[in-house]
Amino acid sequence: MNYSPILIVTGEPNSIFLEIFFKSIRKKKIKSPIILVSSVKLLRLQMKKLKIRKNINILNPNEIDRYNLSNKSVNLINVDYKVSKAFEKISRKSNKYIDNCFELAFSIIKKTNIYKFINGPISKKNYLNKKYLGITEFISQKFNTKKNAMLIYNKKLSVCPITTHLPLKLVAKKINKKLIFEKVKLINEFYMDKLNRNPKIAILGINPHCESVEKYNEDEKIVKPTIKSLKKLKYLVYGPFAADTIFLKKNRKNFDVILGMYHDQVLTGIKTLFEYDAINITLGLPFIRISPDHGPNEKMIGKNISNPLSLIRAIEFLDKN
Question: Where is 77: in which H helix or E strand?
Answer without folding.
Answer: strand 74-78
